[in-house]
Amino acid sequence: MNKSGEHMTELRVLRYDPEVDKKPVYRSYMVPLAGSVLGGLKYVLEHHDSSLSFRYGCWGPGYERCGACAMLINGTPGFSCKVAMQPNGTTVEPHPKFEVIKDLTIDFDREQTGKRKQTKPSSRISIDSEKCVGCRDCVLLCPMNVMQMEKIERKGKAKVADPGSCCGFTCKLCVAYCPPGAIHMEALKVRGQK
Fold first, then answer.
1. What is the mean pLDDT of residues 14-19?
2. Measured between alpha carbons, how far is 16 from 37 in angstroms, rounded to an integer?
3. Domains in the chain, start-ordered, CATH in brackets?
4. If you write DSSP's letter for every residue of 79-145 in order, what string do you get?
5. CB of 128 closer than 8 Å to CB of 184
6. Phi, psi of 82 (to 5 degrees)
7. How far apart are CA 166 and CA 121, in angstroms?
8. 144-168 tens-digit pLDDT
9. Is residue 120 over pLDDT 80?
């Protein structure tokens, strides 16, 4: 508990500036337990270290970039605005699909080359090819490029190309915006979740 009576918890952040650092290092910060991981990161920025770099887009007018706060949270891809801080501590790392600009800020235009860190998916995503009308909404909406189009019987159909990068139920943009309801998501049990 801090002086204000707030319950505090540890937030471990993988810090790395490719232009300065030889290798990434974890730094720990005490943040309020109440709230989201994004709230914890903002607390670090405001109270501990103003050099921490991360992205978010959902707190601005018009929801400019939903998905910008995607990262690994305790080893699972997710949106930091939708995942709660954990009483036993929370570890955050940049999403492994994309190149790191600095700390948790990733370059959505440059995918990692070579071997990527393995993630623990929180959901299984599937597409019913009979219902898919090939509209591409899921491909265009997904901030993690999980979906792509392929030709099936001379028609364009969406397919799950990178399920390990999916942010699952913290996102669900593809499920929400699929006009015919062809995309389905099923929760998987992730260690540490109830």
1. 94
2. 19
3. 8-111 (3.10.20.30), 123-187 (3.30.70.20)
4. ETTTSB--TT-EEEEE-TTEEEEETTEEEEEEE--SPPPP---SEEEEE-TTT-----HHHHH-TT-
5. yes
6. -115, 0
7. 7
8. 889 999 987 778 899 999 898 898 8
9. no
